[in-house]
Amino acid sequence: MGRPRTNDATVKARLVECATELLATRPQESVTVRAVATAAETSTAAVYSLFGDKNGLIGAVRDRAVASLFQAVTAVPTSEDPLADLYALATAYRRWGREHSHLYSVLFGGVQSFEPSETVGTGDPVRPLIAAIDRAVTQSVLDGEATSIAVSLWVTLHGLVTLELAGAFDAPTAEAAFRSTILATLRGWTTPAVFRSLRHDEPAP
């Protein structure tokens, strides 16, 4: 059987899928064009034709991951309670990580890098988070700079999801740790009046 065409959408999707799986389990420098092409049962010429080079292919993998995460978090409805919305966004982030572990590893795994930017693009998954934080600050629910709060929450989420994907927790422990830790992080940024009220009434999951 001859090799498939090197420039069609099916081959392109398969190359991105195979690159995603390889990047999730190997250091980026060890993932070669030939290794991806072999896994996708095509030629190295297909990679160069469709993506230009290895960096173009890796960029396509990251774009796919970002778009998928953006779709997940933007599907979270907005309510009148910004703390409940932030908890819901955290839940959506965790769910996406669990359902797309390979993509999660490509975006946030130890072999990759993640550098939060002060510029939030229209398709940036952090946009709904910043919007919810801004509402919370405007309503005097949270007290702090939006980017600092967002980074704090992401660091917490990343640690929880990474440990869960690594199998560090059984299911009940993971569930309890997620709820208690996210709520504690949110409480830490609340205004004094809201903090006192949350001692008796936590935001609903």
Descriptive report:
With 205 residues, the protein is an all-alpha fold. It has 10 helices and no strands. The chain has helices at 9-25, 33-39, 44-51, 54-74, 82-99, 101-108, 127-138, 146-165, 171-189, 192-198. The chain is elongated.
Quickly describe the structure.
This protein is mainly α and 205 residues long. It has ten helices and no strands.
Give me the secondary-structure topology:
Elements: H1 9-25, H2 33-39, H3 44-51, H4 54-74, H5 82-99, H6 101-108, H7 127-138, H8 146-165, H9 171-189, H10 192-198
Helix pairs in contact: 1-4, 1-6, 3-4, 4-5, 4-6, 5-6, 5-7, 5-8, 7-8, 8-9
- Gap between N and C termini: 53 Å
Which series of helices and strands comes N to C?
A: HHHHHHHHHH
The 3D shape can be described as: elongated
Residue-averaged pLDDT, rounded?
86
Helical residue percent? Answer: 55-70%
Instruction: Please tally the β strands and state the result.
Output: 0
| Low-confidence sequence ranges | 110-118
Taking Cα atoms only, what radius of gyration do you get, to the nearest Å?
20 Å
Note the beta-strand portion.
under 5%
Query: How many helices?
Result: 10
The largest pleated sheet is described as: none
Task: Decide which structural class fits the backbone.
Answer: mainly alpha
